[in-house]
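Researcher: Can you fold this with guanine in place?
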Amino acid sequence: MTAEVIDGVACAASIESSLQIRIDSLKQQGIIPHLAVVIVGEDPASHVYVRAKQRACERLGINSTRIDLPEETSFEQLAEIVQDLNTDDSVHGILVQSPLPNGINELAITDMIEPSKDVDGFHPVNLGRLVQSRDDGQIPCTPYGVMELLHWAGIELTGKRAVVIGRSFNVGMSQALLLAQKGADATVTIVHSKTQNPEEVCKEADILIAAVGVPEMVLASWIKPGAVVIDVGVNRVEDSSKERGYRLAGDVHPDVADVASALSPVPGGVGPMTIAMLMSNTVRSSEKKL
Ligand code: GUN
């Protein structure tokens, strides 16, 4: 079997075009959606991600403000910037790019972001609303993007066995909640570093979501024939044949395409979806429906 490619670029483009209609309608009411992105330090991958977020804002006519801070920024300095953005009525969305340099307590910064402007959906108020299956919060962009991608690809979830590898609050744990929620209705298992026989558990999955951050860890032998596999991993693997010195690898080995019925590629799968959902959360914040 050669798996069908679940095209995140095409799905993200269709989400962006429906957002465009809402953005145009906001503009007719005199509101221009505005996202503020704060980046601290020089982490190269973070700079690539932030540029991609800015480009998406430009494509859609969303105002974006980028605040670049040096590696030595203190917790207090960053906290003051977040507080200023919280009270700035022209700003609808605030994103503080992760990871922050050592010494800055990332969760304490997240706690300070006004929940209605928390377009990452990382604030405990928004995560609590997710646990309660409420529709008045913001959902973390990556797992939200995975749900949209599965829907767009016509993948039935009801009653299916879904396995999520990874239990980070912003991806794996949130993903498991979204898959198990009423309306999605999958039966969900989380695989993590202490799981016994992870390959056996994964082999039971009709839908497997890999969000572990280890390049090509999920092998073809872990996959039930015909399963749907979503690869959330974006890992830099040294490769001297590339001009930039590395290649991007997912968490899923390429041979999985021989066993799965459908597979999201890296790049071009979940990555563009994360950005599309950030734009969607920013538009929602601008519509003041939160
Ligand atoms: N770093 C990598 N992905 C993300 C994300 O979705 N949000 C934030 N704030 N930082 C990130």
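Model: Folded with guanine in place. Residues 49, 95-98, 120, 141, 274 surround guanine (CB under 6 Å).
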